[in-house]
Amino acid sequence: MVFHRKHILGLEELTAEEINTVLDTAASMKEVSERDVKKVPALKGLTVVNLFFEPSTRTRSSFEIAEKRLSADVLNFTPDQSSVVKGETLLDTARNLEAMGAGIIVIRHSMSGAPWLLARELRSSIINAGDGSHEHPSQALLDLFTIRQIRGDIRGLRVLIVGDIRHSRVARSNIWGFLKLGAEIRVAGPPTLIPKEIEDLDVKVYYKLEEALKGVDVVIMLRIQKERQESMFFPSLREYSKLHGLSHEKLRQANDKVIVMHPGPINRGVELSSEVADDVNSVILDQVANGIAVRMAMLYLVASGGRSV
Amino acid sequence: MDSETIARTVSRITDEIISRNRDSGELVVVGIRTRGIYLAQRLAEQVRHITGIKPPLGTLDISLYRDDLQIKREWPELKKTDIPFTIDQKTVILVDDVIFTGRTSRAAIEAIMDFGRPHSIQLAVLVDRGHRELPIQPDYVGNKINTKKDEKVKVLLDETDGKDQVIINRE
User: Fold this and answer.
1) Considering CB atoms only, which of B69, B79, B114 is closest to A28?
2) Which of A56, B88, B92, B165 qualifies as a cystine partner to B156, CB 3.0-4.6 A?
3) What is the CATH number of the domain that holds B127?
């Protein structure tokens, strides 16, 4: 097998071959979710801890279902009810969980780089479930997986990412993933939300959504992250929606079979008009279902890769 | 075994399967990856040839059911399982190329049971090379070969290897 990693931390460090191994494995895992009995014994006896320092419903539930479908023992660690409020450091918390026998720790943290710190200091396998504004590999992998299921191949597709590129770990992971698999990447949004350094990557920057949409095959709409807007980067939500929100009318600029994606949760009427969100082109609910298969693949592969190092 | 012997063996196994299951429920055939799939296809085609009815054909990857995942250093690459029909009340013919320790068959039986409650499961193999580690015996055997435990038995099939042949590697 071409996967020998003990951890999955980000798409920047994965090769195209490794990404394809995750996607191929996910395609096989998807079948398990289609059975009446949605459970296989692969990770029997392995303890997986979901260590989420930030609120999350979708990602945490999705990981939990994936873990249970693989028969792992699951512990959900919620910091607000724990010694973290008493001042325990991240590393001490994680070391304690490891001492309890955690084979895999799935971590979400508001600090960029937190998963790398754990990977360096602990013996457990680490899966990054989102770190600060840095990476969100499981989301990018499921976006790639969803598109590959619909279009067969990623290579040569024109992919546009719209919105708050500056604060978005989904955008960063997706840019790495799509570029590695040979897609063309465009980003669009207000200038205040597109970091200058983005041009160092092989990415085309647009400030007008209508222009950016011309001829694209995939549109990934990002959520406006009100919780990360410490200062306002645009005058009002209403103006944002008018200039950078996706409506049916604007979407006509894109290719006929354009795929519209959103990592959720949607701010209806801000990034997406309701009619676009509910449109047939939207694969948002497919993304959620595929997320389970992709996370099963990630768990299976790190459990396996951890042995060969 | 050469290609003619293999063809004759598949026919003989098919005859045995049909005569033994005259009174039991409908047959379904499930091949265990990788080469069991092609043998299963050949068996199903033979059944159609004789009875006029082609049994449903499925594919099973047993990676997620292995008993050695906790100790194995290299995990197998996971491929697709595809059993797009119900197995409830059916007679499932599991097909593999070689039976050795019996651990693959054990995993396959467990996997099949997760898909439903078959009337029965029967195991057909092209080669039985002995050295069982579990109380599992095939119902249909193409060829019994005496081997040493460290020898390797390799079944080559036209579909994957360009020719039909059984090779024993004495190392």
Assistant:
1) B79
2) B165
3) 3.40.50.2020
Rg (CA), chain B: 16
- Domain match, A125 and A83 both: yes
C-alpha B134/C-alpha B96 separation (Å) is 16
Over residues A251-290, the pLDDT tens digits come to 999 998 999 998 878 888 889 988 888 876 678 888 888 9
CB spacing of B114 vs A37 below 8 angstroms: yes
Confirm or reject contact between A45 and chain B (CB < 8 A): yes
pLDDT at residue A164, rounded to an integer:
92
Domain of residue A159: give its range. Answer: 137-287
Contacts of B80 in chain A (CB under 8 A): 27-28, 31
Window B:61-100, CB contacts with A under 8 Å: 61, 63-66, 69-70, 72-82
pTM exceeding 0.80: yes
Does A214 reside within a domain?
A: yes
pLDDT at B82 over 90: yes
Burial tier of A11 (Cβ tally within 10 Å: 0-12, 13-18, 19+): buried
Measured CA to CA, the distance from residue B102 to residue B128 in angstroms comes to: 10
Q: What is the pLDDT of residues B107-142, one digit of tens each?
A: 999 999 999 999 999 999 999 999 999 999 999 999
A283 with A142, same domain?
yes
Residue A1 inside a domain? The answer is no
In a domain, A153, yes or no: yes
Question: CA angle, corner A96, sides to A95 and A98, nearest 5?
Answer: 65
Cα–Cα distance, A47 to A70 (Å, whole number): 11
- CB contact (8 A) between residue B74 and residue A308: yes
Residues A129, A160 share a domain: no
Q: Residue A154's domain is classified under what CATH number?
A: 3.40.50.1370
- φ, ψ of residue A209 in degrees (nearest 5): -60, -40
Name the 3-class secondary structure at B78.
coil
* Containing structural domain, residue B161: 3-169
